[in-house]
Amino acid sequence: MSATTNGLSVSARVGSIKPSVTVAFGGRAKAMKEAGIDVLSFSLGEPDFDTPQPIKQAAIDALLAGQTKYMPTLGDARTRAAIAEKLTRDNHIPGLTADHIAISAGGKHSLFVCCHCLLDPPKPGEPAQEVLLPVPSWVSYAPIARLAGGRVVELPTGPEVDFKISPEQLRAAITPRSRLLILNSPSNPCGTMYSPAELRALAAVVAEAAATVAPGLIVISDEIYERIVYGGIEHFSIGSVPELADRVVTLNGMSKAYSMTGWRIGYAAMPGDFGRTLIKAFGTLQGQMTTCITSFLYPAIRTALAECDAEVERMRRAFASRAEVIFQRLNAIDGIHCPRPTGAFYVFPDISKFFGTTSGNGRAINSALDFAEALLEEARVALVPGEDFGGCGERCVRISFACSEEQINVGMDRLEAFLGKLR
Length: 423
Description:
Shape: globular
Order of helices and strands: HHEHHEHEHEHEHEEEHHHEEEHEEEH
Number of strands: 14
Mean pLDDT: 96
CATH topology of the largest domain: Aspartate Aminotransferase, domain 2
CATH superfamily of the largest domain: Type I PLP-dependent aspartate aminotransferase-like (Major domain)
Number of helices: 13
Distance between the termini: 37 Å
CATH class of the largest domain: Alpha Beta
Largest sheet: 7 strands, mixed
Low-confidence stretches: none
Radius of gyration: 22 Å
């Protein structure tokens, strides 16, 4: 992407960014389907359910009523207050008002704006601000943090610890340059989550470090999958810990729990005086980017938060059933190791025992990317190779089970047949 044509080129900043591998494999699967090829896609993190009818109707009614004009950059006061009430009631985050909430064009946009409001590029001769990132992690965290000027410090995890960092590991990683810690529970791509006790232990480490070596340290807690839990672990917001609340930015949105991926609605929240300052900064940056989200979506947000718990629970139960099916199928395959999923709709199995083999069509498999490429071309199953998720992801593939149990079983049949032809 850094190539020059007739003296013209894109910026080095953008040229350094790797395209999203999840989008790439999802796009390939979609193109093959459109060409009439029978492909089963397990690549995109998109629920297969329709958006609940009351949410759609709220947007339709607002559109028909003429709510089609510009809105305040951060969202209207009524909807921001509804989100603050939700986070106070359900997540127990203290001290939130509408002034502590920013509504953005999707969860990824919220993350982008947050990182750019909190990170500065390093000055000449000075070290960069550090972004502590447990890996494997969602493919967009590291590129966005780097684009904002941060230096990503990976905290490696593995399936033997359900892809979770320890307090000791976090304490050892913090330095005076540590600016952000990004947490994602339940996790994309891992499908596991931290317990309340584990998050409280990490919070204690952050609070201790903020009082000593890292006074500017802030936690970004991405909780977009908070409603999709089924493994007996209660979702817990680290921003509810009193001694840390004013240092936590909670990111969330409507995409996953309410099956509203295409609506592009995310939000960020941070209590306290600095929270107000940060949210104002969100408004400044968003005002030069997107201004506001689509005006007739605000009633849909309020309707989702107030009226759609039953629909969310129905979808959660379906994901719980699918999680058990795919976990049992994968762990019945010799050579695959997969921790039990407890949240979100992903599994992240280690498939490295198949490295060094050759596929039925003669393709050498020496990496997760090789594995995913061969599986797509030969078995018509689209997964996401794990290299771009960081850490031990190079040995894994991400499988999204946001699809029917029938598709899961057919896909696992194809996977088993593919593996049976390796040599």
